[in-house]
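Late entry, written up from scratch paper. The run itself happened at the end of the previous shift, but nothing got recorded in the book at the time, so transcribing now.
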Amino acid sequence: MATVFVSTVLNAPPAAVWRIVRDFNGLPDWTPFVVESRIEGNLPADKVGCVRIFKLADGGVIKEQLLGLSDYDFKCTYAILESPMAVTEYVATLALAPVTDGNRCFASWEATFECRPEDEKELIAHIGDNVFQSAFTALKKRLDGR
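Output as recorded:
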């Protein structure tokens, strides 16, 4: 099983960041690579089990299911159901924690998945750099007012 882990420190407290990232349908609002998103069946975006379908800037479509959402722990876990990436059993968690040195938070995004051995290194780099880190970079700019 492949694992991707990316982390950063954001210049805002966890509660402020959580207001942005907890919306399971809100990726177009804070990531540079998602252009539209919708929740199937008009379910609330914070209902565990709901399914989002989103379109990427490159035209790809991904379908994901919300597996867990904790306002107490500032944590969201989801699974990919359908994707143009050659992955299976993909489960990811985005989590926030306070940084006690300043009014900041530690953000981590981790995913595990199965793939063909020959694709693993490329997929880990793609997900880590082009998805997780790209989203964190955009989030930093938003929080810093840029």
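The chain has a mean pLDDT of 95.
(Scratch paper discarded after transcription.)
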